[in-house]
Amino acid sequence: MNDANAIFYRLRPRLQAIAYSMLGSVADAEDAVQDVWLRWHGTDQAAVNNVEAWLVTATTRVAIDRLRSLKARREHYVGLWLPEPILTDGPATPEQIHERHGDVSVALLSMLERLSPEARAAFLLHEIFDVGYADIAETIGKNEAAARQIVHRAKSQLRDGEPKYAVSPEAHGRIVERFAQALSLGQFKLLKAMLADQAELIGDGGGIETSFPRPLLGGQRIAQLFYASNLRFKSALRIDLASINGELSVLRYIHDALESVQTVETDGDRIVRVRVQRNPEKLARIASELGVPLYSTGGASPAA
């Protein structure tokens, strides 16, 4: 492997993380990074002073272009769109360990959908990947002052959209563990107590598995929905925990087949939002990594 290839492969986890954070899809991120690979081999590499900066800039620009196209397609998505979750247990290489600081939660990825592609890129590069304003400005074709303003406005837009809860990973994990236990045992009263009165459940079935066309509101209604799954599937239902996008999350199995990935948002006291990913196209990678089949309802909803 020559030096140019070695540099690219060393930086590939970082490039993949940037592309995924921009696009919310592993497959689209892989395509974007492959495009950058081809561009890298088509450029005069000897003229590149800072290879990492060049590759990060190229990846971000490719992702911006792809996101414009994806946003148009997502306007016609069947039901509610949620990003593809990724399993983040046990990073296998030092490069992946180094990139764990770039994990972006499903909640943040969902919020980022309200930003323009350029604003999303500027926010992610500065806030998640520690890129300086001068490099951000070059990447998005603005001057440094404009780049600062774009990041500031993006942060304000995200902050104004919904409250941001300062919850430690430890506190979040404890709540998710209790939630998983309540789901596993079918403890309706505990589920209801753990869910905020105005909690919401957002489900993504991708038009393949039936899900809700709009968020389901109300802690009691959500608790009833989960409890109904226990009554229906009894011992066939199994709840596990896993790190998803860097956060402890719930995996739900039916007949030992992966049915959904559920990520939890909390205010530190109660659960305010549950995002349920049921689209098999977005679960296939996790199921493959876990070595389990995917559960199919044939379009019928298994209660949640």
TrEMBL record:
Give the domain of life. Answer: Bacteria
SUPFAM superfamilies from the entry?
Answer: NTF2-like, Sigma2 domain of RNA polymerase sigma factors, Sigma3 and sigma4 domains of RNA polymerase sigma factors
Residue span(s) of domain RNA polymerase sigma-70 region: 10-71
State the Gene3D superfamilies in the record: 1.10.1740.10, Winged helix-like DNA-binding domain superfamily/Winged helix DNA-binding domain
Can you supply a Gene Ontology BP term from the record?
DNA-templated transcription initiation
Q: Which GO terms describe its molecular function?
A: DNA binding; sigma factor activity
Domain RNA polymerase sigma factor 70 region 4 type, chain residue ranges per copy: 106-158
**Complexes and interactors:** Interacts transiently with the RNA polymerase catalytic core formed by RpoA, RpoB, RpoC and RpoZ (2 alpha, 1 beta, 1 beta' and 1 omega subunit) to form the RNA polymerase holoenzyme that can initiate transcription.
Protein name, as recorded: RNA polymerase subunit sigma-24
The scientific name of the source species is Dyella japonica DSM 16301
Traced from the root, the source organism's taxonomic lineage reads: Bacteria, Pseudomonadati, Pseudomonadota, Gammaproteobacteria, Lysobacterales
